[in-house]
Amino acid sequence: MSPRRTGTALRLVTERDAAALAGLLSGNWSFLAPFEPERGPEHFTADGQARLLRHALSEHAAGRVVPWVVEHDGELVGRLTLSSLVRGPFQSADVGYFVAEAVNGRGVATTAVAQAVAAAFAPPPGGLGLHRLQAATLLSNSASQAVLQRNGFERIGVARRYLRIAGSWQDHVLYQRTA
After folding, report:
1. Please, what is the Cα angle at 7 between 17 and 19, to 5 degrees?
2. Of 21, 132, 153, 172, which is least surrounded by CB within 10 A?
């Protein structure tokens, strides 16, 4: 029997995570809904999550996305994704994440973002060798803004009507961090 892992860790998603993610999302939807796009019922099923994970892994193989799950004390508690990965002179990606309500406010998101930043800025072959990361939060999402600020992200402005969240186009605060 292997020892139970403690602490917070990122690992690449697998299709085997589909059922756990479906359960996590459905069990936390009232907590997450104010910060997320509207989702159809298929989003909360193992089959729906398996489709999304297959797509994410295909994008990962093409070098456009790094899709991780967030584990805490050996349990899957969230997702963190580096998306819109651009190479060439830009060397940039967008950071998006969520954690379950049960671990919210316990440093899990802060630690997961710190691990993603380290992997993003570390040189290949162990890291991605990126120069810049950016993230966006709703104006009212002070908890996520604090996670980003604790990880050295700086506020760079407000994007009006940036994303369609909870059924309406909403303004977002933009953050960036450079290597």
Report:
1. 15
2. 132
* Cα 125 from Cα 109, distance rounded (Å): 25
Nearest to 50 by CA among 80, 98, 73, 18: 18
pTM over 0.90: yes
Q: Cα torsion at 15, 16, 18, 20 (round to 10°)?
A: -150
Tens-digit pLDDT profile for residues 147-178 = 999 999 999 999 999 999 999 999 999 999 99
Helix (H) or strand (E) holding 160: strand 154-165
